Amino acid sequence: MSITQETLQQHLKDPAIFCCRREKGLVISAADLEDPGLFEDMQEAGLLTLTPDGLRIEQVIGCTLLQDVEALTPITKDVLDKVNEVKGEKAEEPAAVEEAAPAPVVQPITGGNGMIHIEIGKAEKFDGLKLDVPVFAGGVPAAPAPAAVPVDEKTGEKTVIRSLIKKHIKISDVKLGDETSIKDGVITINKDIVNDAVKEDVLCKSLELEVIHPDERHIYTETIMDVCPIATKVEGVLGEGITKVADGVVFMLTGVDEDGVQVHEFGSSEGYLDEKMYFGHPGCADENDIIIRCHAVIQRLSGMTRPGPFAAHKCQDYIVQAIRNELKKYDGEIVREELCEDVRRVGNPRVALVKEIMGQGAMHDNVLCPEEPCGIKGGQKNVDCGNVPILLTPNQVRDGSIHALTCIGPATKEMTRHYIREPLVEGLAADDELDLIGVICVGSPQVNDEKLWVSERLGSLMESMNLDGVIITTEGFGNNHIDFIQHIGQAGKRGVPVVGVSFCAYQGQLVVGNEYADAMVEENMDKGGFENDIAGTSCVTPEVAVRAIQMLKNKMAGVPIKPAEKKWNNDVINANNRLLGLPETKLVESGTLH
């Protein structure tokens, strides 16, 4: 496949290979040369052999061919009328195959403590047969910062727009009893509340509650549909005021239909609980959390529709609300107070976080901006909103403005608890070198025409926000990667430095790409690079967030990104982690978590 003039400029130091048979008298141009990005695939397939006497692209452009040459043949000086002289080289000297160029010096953003150079290749589809997939490459330590340049002392000064206080209330135990109450740190749930809760939706046929203590997790459960915290507003609305959060306990929703079919789509997490959840990850229960399991049975054949899974969430929320009402008036021990602030840092780089959420209908949906943190009532489904971009403040996200209804693969699913403590929101909001403008939630439609339309709306929004940089994330993989790459392109073509964050690894390799998808952060934590059916495994973690934020800083600073290793390599991720002072990413496989 021939290359464009733009691609040629990016590969002047790469070997010059004819893409097709060329005849004597040809003046060599970009249209005659094969794309260097495909060389590795071609070598593996035995279609191409590079030779030591082959010339580089910069040495052959504009030269005339003296004889006929076959396709995928290295260009050597004996078939040309001349060899272009390159500054610092003699024209008659044969060029060796290009080695990796030295890593550029990394200069930190003002006030930073050094950058890591993370490299990534872009995915490109060619002839519908083979794919280049984005993977990690290594980084280099930052060079010492240059001499300080005098700046306005008020640049980057923090201005608080609104504040949110999250009071974490200690919960020491949960019991099923004859009333719903909270006393002395113990939540008691009326065991008969399920009879009223099931009436919230006719598609929900039955509900069952079970309390699972940390030392009781080696028990069988059906597929995990969601993990949801218990939180309630006691002052103000979502994103401001005071919120109480029950500390040490979460709800876990599981579900099947009347035929016993698991409510899931790509992968299912039924099995022994201690083997099917990545405890401690943002969307999951923590190591010492008490889990209130709410098991729903929904109408036959409704599991792959929007109303079916929603019925289970809606009925569970009836029970959660009863506990919220008790939490509002409970004056218990406060384990910690979490101060969350929406701020402006005028003069710092203006950045935004774009979260692509599921919106393909069926069971792919989310509830945005409910009345209560992580709730259902009063919220709107992003599918019903046309999946258009919706701008939230960081505090609104941290106060539970997103309730996840999605039943995609467990390992890559961002559950409700993930959103209320999203590491990228926390990291960007706390970074005093950046000015976090907001969090954009954009749905992923099913139809390609709708994907493009929604992505264009996102592009216009990013442009109007006058951003200096953006991080774009997506949960899951496959169909939604089409939107994901479109979103990256919408930012890139507007000159906005962009970093993508997704699960790709082996199974989730990107099926599309563009020239702007050159800075990608991998979420995978599965040993084989697969969706491993362990809930919450391969989502954004604090370590992933640190790498993504540092990469964005590098991109905004103009640090070039070199082509990366072709295949996913966790060793390179760990090298980056070490440079940033992070723990190594320890990959898991099914059956090893307990």
Automatic annotation (TrEMBL):
Keyword Nucleotide-binding assigned: no
Q: Which GO terms describe its molecular function?
A: D-proline reductase activity
EC no. given is 1.21.4.1
Q: One Pfam family this chain carries?
A: Gly_reductase
Q: Where is the signal peptide?
A: none
Q: What class of enzyme is it?
A: oxidoreductase
* InterPro entries according to UniProt: Asparaginase/glutaminase-like, D_pro_red_PrdA, Gly_reductase_pB_sua/b
The name under which this protein is listed is D-proline reductase (Dithiol) proprotein PrdA
Native species? Extibacter muris
